[in-house]
Each structure stands twice: as C-alpha cells, then as structure tokens.
Predict the 3D structure of the following.
Amino acid sequence: MRDRCPEAPGVPLPPLVAQLGESCEASSRLHGGTTYHAEELGIFRAIAAEQGHFLGEAPAQLGEPPTAERNEHQVWYREESATFLKATWPGHFGMKVVHRNDEEPQASPVGYLHRWMLHNELFGDSVTFLGALDT
C-alpha cells in the first residue's frame, strides 16, 4: 500500500475492489451462499495473477528497519516522496467488521482492500495497491 504520492506507481482501489467484489458475488450466486475466507483468498490470488499484481521482488525498503510496526503490518516512511509503504504480514488482514457466527471472522485481502477504499473516501487519502508478494 502507498499513500499521498500521485506520481508513484500503484493500482487505484475502486476498480480493483469492484472487480474483487464482482468475482465474490459471482461465486456466491454460483454456490448459493456467501464466499468464505479461503475462497476469497483464491479469488484474490487469481485476479492478482491475471492482472500482474504479484511483485517480481520485494521493494528494497522491506529489508530496512521499519518506521513503525504493529500486529499485522510494518510501515516505512519515504521522506523523499512524502509517502508511506505498508507491508501486511501474510494472512493478517484484520477482522471482518460484521460476520455471522458460522463465518470466519478474519478478513481476506478482499475485505482488507475494501476497507482501505472506504478509508480513502472518508478521509480524503489516496492509498493505492502496489502489489502482493507471492508467498
């Protein structure tokens, strides 16, 4: 993820989130129920592979000490471009805001990116998706 640098590369979240959501809805209609965590991971991986969102190599900054670190991610501030690089640990995309008792409460990349899109809308930020490491 990156924020506040219009000239840096990145995928705008609205079209990516829309495509992920449409794929989840299609799967839900096909199977007659909501998508589950592992299914959403598969949908994300398929779209990332199809659209070239897997990074060939990790950004160099990931080898440096992070500016901040929390339970699910590390963040690097890039002073030269006044941007942040955020790397989320594999399998740590936060928790779903609303879920049924029979559903996995852990969010998938689909939900995680949807929340970031809402964050942009609510707070006027410009977070974009740089890509995923195929781990």
In short: The radius of gyration is 15 Å.
